[in-house]
Amino acid sequence: MVEEKMEKREQASGKFRIEDFPVKKEYGKITQESFFTLRDRIGVERARPLEDWEIGDMRFTRSFIRRAALAIGDYNPLYRDLEYAKKSPHSTIIAPPTVMQHIEQINARTDGMPGMHALYRGITLRWRRPIRMGEVVMGKTYLRDVQLSGSQLSGVSVIQWYETIGTSDKGDEVGRVLTSWSRHERMAAAKTTGARQKLRPQASYTLEDIERIKEAYRKEGRRGAEPRYWEDVEVGEELPPVIKGPTCLPQRMFGESAAMVGSEIKIGASGDWGVQHAQLWKLIEQHPGLPYINEQGVPEVPVTIHNSNEKAQRYLGLPGGYDAGMQRINWTGHLLMNWVGDHGFLRELTIKMPQLNIMGDTTWCRGKVTGKRVEDGKHIVELDVWNENQVPNIVTQATAQVVLPSRSDPSAKTWD
Amino acid sequence: MTTNKEVQFKKHTTKITDEALAELRNMVGKEIVGEGIAHPREDWEIEDAKFSVADVRRLCRAIGDFNPLFVEEGYAKKTRFGRPVVPPSIVLEEEQLDPEMGALVGCRAVLKAASVEWYMPILQGDALLSKSYIRNIQEVTASLDDGRVVTQDLETLVSNHRGEKVATVKTSWNCYERGSAAELSIFDGREPAMWNSDQIESIHQEYRGEEASGVIRGAEPRHWEEVKVDERIPYILKGPTTTTKRVSLIILAGFTFQETFEWYHGHGEAFEQLEKWPDLFFPNEFGSLEPVKGMEWSHDRAQRLLGVPGAKEANSERLHWTTQMLTNWQGDDGFLKRIDLKFPAINMMGDITRCYGKVIGKRVEEGKKVVDIEVWNINQVGETVTTGSAEVVLP
To answer: Which of A151, A269, B69, B182 gives 20 to 30 Å between its CA and that of A199?
Structure first.
């Protein structure tokens, strides 16, 4: 019943025209003025000139990489053990590849459509080579498109697409990051409370469930130093799963923040709002419509709605607090890096997040080989990758391309 | 896996056993040096632990202290330090043990008193190294029916990576069994504050005023001769505190204090920690594991899980705030030599805190021109939540 209604809404998505919305800018609403103001930024380079200390703070130090790996829950020795990493094809510690997602200079969390809630729809990461210890990777971000679309959550939403080009301090391109976001009117989103509660209750575990999860952690396998040759891979083959969670707020605080790189950028997304005391009141003066009034009557920035089950229920009609999507990208990277081994290379990952990851969920990261090909001398394997929660719902859908070593030339590099 | 059960909280309790107390007593006087990234040992770890300009800015943002001596590199370069200064209260975060870990893992530790003596400023580029000692353990249980209460007195010697003595930090903690009547008594009848829009508007007005956000003396020296006994130090206002403040503190300060490494692990490591520290976790509303610090993210959780009136803030923040008031006042050429605070009452999420100070004496000691200051904090209901004193050396 609920699904049917939502499908109907989805079908109606093509019918929205910006001309049918109010002209004058209004906080938290879709208006022609805010829509076109945002569209004017399409194609404009969005990179603030960085000061030396900011660039220094973006360096992938050994401590930073160790912390990021811990935050993801990925104990791959390539990230943590210098002696081990020296003997690998990388000759040094490398960073978990998915940390590249944080080089974005700006995205829909703070760009345009003021006062509208931002949800992460998906990301494509394309790497040319691994990120190595001691490097700095700097991003230049471009807004690529802005469109109206139907929405399950709020009826209609604004979709924003971004592209970021990442360049190392040695001057070469390391990779690109493409993201897309949906923006929602908060009140409209709250109206779907009942439907969403029915759709997705909170997780609940028995002691036996917890034992099973513990067992799944014990079974996690990593390919490591033994090369996985392209010739040995079969289409249809499944990847050994990686389990994550059950999540809780303390874990998420660490998981989402410690893997970020770059100071004002590291805190940029939530950090522009991460102020308190005198600075909070200055922020409220600049953006009077930004805060909501919390249960104690205090103005609070909306990013906190993520962080509390009660707040997510009350203000967004969601079953509980939810993740920002970043950690699922890192978890998927964990699955793929476990499988490709030290000689393989994660070349491309496209992730969509059709459902939210709700606080308390357990996530199984899974994958399957869908194709094999050789292109420009690279031995490529194509994969379908997905995250499944305990309901079970598919909360993340992804495709990936990895490059594996070939028996025909085992010593050839798998990256550019 | 079931997914349609009612959300249920189970009241969380912990015990302080005779064995745990004996273990703790056994540690008295021994040097304690923690493990992990928060406690740098190897050369590369010390290198990475050096305060960067960004670290200092993050830390200041977490405290809400925007003194240009700390946060503006260009400004700081022109001062006698030649580089950004680190807010001196950072040394409070250098303790090598957490009284809620170790032998009494899972208890609620409430900071009752904290004193710091500084020997030199901490600058950007310095790494801090420290050693902690448990100096005294004392059982102060009033009634076993209400639950055990144990006092832990800690001392931490802080030095920098060049081996110079930076500060001595002394803290005193009361440790309570979770869910006990003794734990409840720390709230002393307090309830979470409720604010109406008029009150919020008046706080907003107060922040707009000259003083509340902090009057920063900065480059203009405050000479000892100018200071008068009974002179009032410009006060500062903090709060009302929110979940956002708590999250910011953890995310922002976590990069510098790196306390995240003690508590916030998840996934497979949470299960490994569970085996090592069963009392570090409580069964949350999903029936899964969560570090006990997660019990106080909201009033609602604290009420349901602990049966207390709401979420309590960490008393230690008041030392950061009081320090901010003093460093604002003393100017770039002043030096905060000592601070000594007692925390007779808690503060809760949603409270505001006003930090006050008054000059009570002036003296010259070993050629240094010292000003003695009385400091105190008052919350929105007029309760004195902090008392104490400080010594500032002025030019």
So the answer is: A269
